Amino acid sequence: MDFNEDDDGLNYDKDTPMVGFFEMFKFSTFKIKIYLVLGIISAILAGIAMPLFVIFIEELYNSFDPDTSVKTTYDNCFKILLYLIYIGIGLWFVSYLYLAFFGMVSEYTGMIYRVKYLESVLKQDISWFENNDPQSLASKISKEASAIQIATGEKAANIFFAFTMLIAGAVVSFTMGWKFAFVTVALFPLLFLVLYFMILVLQMGFKKQEQAFKASSTLAEQALNSIKVVQAYGQEEKEDERFCEPLEEARKSGIKYHYISSLAYGMNNGIFMLIFALALFFGALFVTEGIKNDIRDRDYTPGDIIAVFFGMMFAAFSLSLAGPNFKSVTKGRQAAYAALQTIERVPNIIIDDEAAKRIDNIRGEIKFENVKFKYKTRKINALDGVTINFEQGKITALVGPSGSGKSTIVQLMERFYDPDEGSVLVDGEDLRNINLRDFRSKVGYVGQEPVLFNQTIRENLYYGNPEATEDDMLEACKKANAAKIIERLPEGLDTIVGAQGGQLSGGERQRIALARAFIKDPKILILDEATSALDRKNEQEVQEAIDNLKNGDLNITTIVIAHRLSTIRYSDKIVVLKEGKVVEEGNHKELLKNYKGGVYSTLVAKQEKLDDDQGEGDGNSDESADHKKRVHKTSTMRKNTSFNEEIKSKKEEADALDEDIKKEKDELIAQIKKKGYFKRLLEYNKPYWLIIVGLISSGIQGMTMPVFAVFYVKILFAMFEEDLELIAWYCFGMACNCFLSCTATYFQKLSFGILSENMTKSIRRDLYKAILKKHAGWFDLPENNIGVLTSTLTSDVYALNGASTEGLSTVIETWIGLIGGLTMGLIFEWRIALSALCVIPFFICSAVIQVQLQTGFTESQEGSLKKANLLLSDAISNYKTVASFGHEYLLTDILRKNLQEPLRKGAIKSHLAGFVFGWSNFVQNVVMGLLFFLGAVYIRYDGADQENCFLAIFVLMFAAWGAGQAQQFGPSQGKAFKSAIRIFSIIDEPSEIDASENSSELVMADDKTFNGKIEFRNVWFRYPTRADSWILKDFSLTILPHEKIGLVGESGSGKSTIVQLILRFYEPHFGQILINGVDIKHYNLKSLRQQMGLVQQMPTLFNDSVLFNICYGENEQDVNRAIEASGISNAKGFISRLTDAKGDDNVAIEEHEEVDEDNVDVEDLKKGLKTGCGTNGGKLSGGQKQRVAIARAVIRQPNILLLDEATSALDEVSQGKVQEALEKIMEGRTSIVIAHRLTTIENCDRIVLLKNGKIYKQGKYNEIKDDL
Asked: For the ABC transporter domain, which residue ranges apply (predicted)?
């Protein structure tokens, strides 16, 4: 499969609007515009210089007329050699200039469009994003900027160069013999028809195959992003099958395409020889019939014929060069039009509106007056006549079920939207009249899912306050209870947090996000579930910090949205919303007193029961003290010094083990390098008989060019003799050679095309299967991140694909052509042949470079742009958070900084490309002149035969030219070698944990005998990427069969690690984990995981139906069982109201009114089950996704239930119902519950409090509640 810049995902057609060519440079500086002018002038001069050597061909060829004296031949050849050197030097210089200047112009243009584009996108109002999917915007920016960059670089330069060469070539031809020039013009439509057919075939061919490959890539990316869910539910084989289905479709469509494309390639190779044969035959008629050349006032000579023909060949070559470049420039102009629509768009809500009122400070009083608002994508009002007063310096909480309007109020308060009716007042001033950047600089915002960029903690804090000092940052971290995080990290504030903050735990990310809000010194603080990811201890500390913000001089107006009522109980005012209206208002006590049986009192009923229990416990101090005595402390008390020594010893042992694993991997890679990849690839190239056909065809094709040269010279010298009959026979022979070339190319391309399709499928299948087998720790390593792996599955496989038998075919074609040409040259004139050995390699290189001109010199900068593209993706995906900063210019500055290195590298490559291209032009001129001069020397001084000299020169030159042409289809061996190492190291590297292992020695986990007893014995564990930090230290814990265990502790204390070790995502470094008394290493892992059900804090859903997601771990999709599971997880209500809102992939289904879960229409429910969940479950709200994930675990009827913050995303009503359901399904099962909400774990048989990787305390809830 052929990937190039056309495979860019930009689906423009001829009717797509475009800008003028020079309009693409509207953001260019004066310096860049000067570069552009100099580049255009240089390209024009290069285009004029290219055909100039044709002027000397006529005299050069005529000098070898047998009737010409040897001295005249020698003198003419020496003179022409000097002329060609002069032209070559001039051409070298101007060729270098035009590629260098245009290269620098394009690099700058691509950079400035990326910056301008991001700058504009981040200034757009939020409603604009409803019609512009943020998930695809970063990719769109990158693709459009790349298309503009390509269009303003060498592609544009080549058009100026080509059209000048077209005019110059035609002028040279017509001024040297206009009559024959008209004859050659009549032949070229045949060439253009073949070229058009080839372009049409290449454009048409891979579209269906690309769709299939994209489908498989999407499935792979989705599965790899959810690898822990895939492995936990034992769906590696199913994912492999899903991945292979589109691969087989791609293979079949690819093979069908190769039957047509091979014909196009064959015709493309053959048509050149055919036109040559026809031109020479008609030229012979001009010579033999004595047709007068009016320009020279004599009859046409063989030199005239060749010169005119070569001049027209230059003109034709210029058109073939301009064609694909025109397409790229047109696409760039269309991309510029699309980009400018965004860049020049004036948003409805302008962040820097000059007419708006500038403010230095605000008091922070906010008032909503009869506000109505409806999202464009929804049918009902999100807010319906809302009036709320958020008092200065007070804490106001917003409470209500999902979809009641809480988050909408926040979005209007941030002025992400303007109300349809009513107004939002800040200190009595309509928010629409206030400068938005000034206002947002006074507002701190922290959302439920904290957004951190893949930068240092320091850089993330700068988004809150670009002028913050390190002391300001440390103080903000202290307020957010994040100071310990900074102290623990070796790099402190300069620690890179990873993609999406992935190097930090959920609670740590949340606290850094809180610190970023605090550092703004805000007058208004908005907390949208801001403490949801914190454990109780940290939540209390952060809540205390939030409560203290209103004290002293700060006097901050705080708006809190929370599902945990403990978070808002002490708010100054609580506003209860339902269906977009305010239904209750007051403080906690007032709401319970004035709205008995209301929405709020219903929400707090269960919480009050817990509070009463706590009150009773607190009131009985003796009983409490007695309980404390009974607390079971399992950690053996040691002196700190001895335990620290043990930690140090274990670290040294673990480091040694890790080093051994690294050495094994290095040895594996060394073995792969040593063995090479060619023999390994042969195993994938089947059927083998196609290899033989392809190689024989390659050898035949290699010899066609030297044979063609023989006919060419024979025809030329027959012209000198004016023997028309002999010329006709030679022309017929040339035509037969043309047919042979066409046939050989067809079978060569067809054979290797079929082999490549078979190989692509097989390697991708084996590679993907090997990836799915890897253990979770393997994916934690930076070199195995999902982006790298999906790239390996596509681009690395493609690079390797062409380097096997197809690479061998190129080698065979090249070397047979060269050896055949050299042998023939030695036979015709051995002195010329030996002399040519010194210069022919240069000619081959120049031929390769000339071919490269048609496809492009400057390599893709995707590798260098990776960092910039990641920033684009992060910034746009989290556009609301960026907008809330009010400092989006920081991101554009960082993007500009990240683009400086690609800009510098691109400029260097441009200079290098210009130098090399100029050198190739110089070589082609000089080598030809030098060989003819050497021929003249041997004729004059050694009595060499003129015709034999000509034959030796041309068989070698055409063989070299053919070798250069062959390289355009040859793969990059260096790139292939790197890809081979990467691919085969993944395939060959054994997984530390392999769920597919099916040895008879492994124990099968059987439903009948499996009781669910779990034992941790002296377990030590650290994550692969955090070698300096032990998560579990000498950890021991026994969980009895059917026991319900609650795990609590600070973020990073090891709670989720315990769950992941039970699932055997990782292996402990030391110690044992036993289930049913058997070491989990001795279980058949797939059967073991079948006994477990997992629900994670961040639910992972696939872009498929709800039914598919619920039944993901099952062998079949059973609707009745799915309905039963959805009922248990409290999901039947919202599923029954799901509709497949096409194109609305990021809008959650609204849940204004409650639904009786027991009286749901079955048909509506079945229809809802068939509805797609969207990308990453984007059509569902967080709570809805969580309930589907719970149903997925429930349907398995697991013996061990693992709930990692399973109810964290639910509101209080849903949480209560789901908790009740979970209580039922936990009966009779071993259950491990991780939770920050105490209501989730209060009924557990035992609660284990973790601290620093060890058990701090354990016991029943009442026994240890004071420590929670």
From this structure: 366-604, 1014-1268
